User: Which sequence fits this backbone?
């Protein structure tokens, strides 16, 4: 796999950093997550393929253990508020002094500088600060955050993974590590570059929810079917729009022009009425195999059995029966191989990881009995 041999220390976080770590693990990196002690369960739902070491960082000896792990690794991924790592003596200067090849990734909401750098926040706040939230939502309604996808995952976890891969690539030439300041505000804004760069085209001149791509246009929207499901329509180009109209059983001559914005409410009403006359399956049969750009809106449970997804193996069931998307993109020679077994218990790999990183058996036992580290090895099944 592409990242085989790369050792990552991931400090347990909420959502973006765990996703970043999972991407790296899916593509072959060895990801060791540092969990708190005295926890019975993790909130990391993105733990696939990781190992877990439980370590008390409120104890200086715990901090010393972490330092030893970090300086022997390729990447440190930390999701804390600005200053937390420095307070423990684990800031980038301290660690890079001992290991100049280290890649030190800091994944935060607002970045390492600026007046918001130390403020708490979540996806919706970062999205708001990126400018993008102001554009998201239906006409005449308030701004609406599309789950926590854009800042946490696209602008945060994924962008940070990209930064780490870039830094690894650069290190292969320079032999040097570096610090990655991954701000979710900036990551989200960067993902949204199209919104800034396409303003000159007039794509966003109208109020929120009344433009071509923000559900303003009736040919770029979703419609309810007779069985209470939905179809997604993205018939923008005239040649595809023609196929869409034809599929609905409508005639161009009876309808206002596609790009006549003042007629969009009337067109939407017509499309709504027609879509309500068949089930989702019936509409899928009508549009499958055409270029009308119409697809069923599938639920998370339905994606696995859709023939297209099935043909590509786009989703898989792990050993626990849980459905997950396959890692993307697909690399021809060194594709990702997501781990199919269960997520680690907290502290499951404490002993084995410490041993591998050069701790003596007696030291490990001391750390365990002092409660500085914890180990919950899985019981062997007879
Ligand atoms: C919208 C998303 C977030 C969605 C997440 C949800 C899925 C989950 C959120 C709450 C969860 C529920 C909850 O936990 C209750 C239940 C628990 C149960 O176990 C499971 C069910 C639950 C219902 C559970 C279910 C779900 O998991 C939840 C609903 C986001 O937007 S995530 C993005 C957030 N932002 C960032 O990541 C940006 C960067 N980080 C920050 O700004 C801050 O870290 C943040 C997030 C604001 C948190 O600030 P906080 O004050 O809490 O921490 P920090 O200032 O960063 O400092 C960390 C301190 O922790 C100490 N520490 C770290 N590791 C250890 C250790 N191993 N041992 C000891 N101590 C440790 C560290 O030293 C710091 O201590 P100090 O404060 O003393 O310096």
Assistant:
């Amino acid at each position: 796999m592409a990242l085989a041999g790369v050792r990552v220390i991931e400090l347990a976080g909420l959502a973006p950093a765990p996703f970043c770590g999972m991407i790296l693990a899916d593509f072959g990196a060895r990801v060791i997550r540092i969990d708190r002690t005295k926890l019975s369960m993790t909130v990391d739902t993105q733990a696939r393929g990781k190992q877990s070491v439980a370590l008390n960082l409120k104890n200086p000896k715990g901090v010393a253990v972490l330092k030893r792990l970090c300086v022997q690794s390729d990447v440190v991924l930390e999701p804390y508020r600005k200053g937390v790592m420095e307070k423990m003596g684990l800031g980038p200067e301290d660690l890079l002094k001992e290991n100049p090849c280290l890649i030190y990734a800091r994944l935060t909401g607002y970045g390492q500088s600026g007046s918001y750098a130390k403020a708490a926040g979540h996806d919706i706040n970062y999205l708001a600060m990126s400018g993008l939230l102001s554009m998201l939502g239906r006409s005449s309604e308030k701004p609406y955050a599309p789950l926590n996808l854009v800042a946490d995952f696209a602008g945060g976890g994924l962008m940070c993974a990209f930064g780490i891969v870039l830094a690894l690539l650069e290190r292969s030439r320079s032999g040097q590590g570096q610090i990655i300041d991954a701000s979710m505000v900036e990551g989200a804004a960067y993902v949204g570059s199209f919104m800034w760069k396409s303003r000159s085209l007039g794509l966003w001149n109208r109020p929120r929810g009344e433009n071509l791509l923000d559900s303003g246009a009736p040919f770029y929207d979703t419609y309810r079917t007779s069985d209470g499901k939905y179809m997604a329509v993205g018939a923008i180009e005239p040649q595809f729009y023609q196929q869409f109209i034809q599929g609905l059983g409508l005639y161009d001559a009876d309808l206002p022009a596609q790009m006549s914005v003042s007629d969009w409410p009337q067109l939407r009403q017509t499309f709504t009425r027609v879509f309500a006359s068949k089930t989702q399956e019936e509409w899928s049969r009508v549009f499958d195999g055409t270029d009308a750009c119409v697809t069923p809106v599938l639920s998370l449970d339905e994606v696995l059995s859709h023939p297209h997804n099935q043909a590509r193996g786009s989703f898989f069931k792990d050993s626990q029966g849980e459905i997950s998307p396959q890692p993307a993109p697909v690399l021809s020679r060194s594709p990702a191989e997501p781990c199919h077994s269960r997520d680690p218990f907290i502290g499951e790999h404490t002993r084995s990881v410490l041993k591998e990183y050069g701790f003596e058996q007696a030291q490990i036992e001391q750390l365990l009995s002092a409660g500085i580290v914890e180990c919950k090895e899985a019981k062997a099944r007879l």
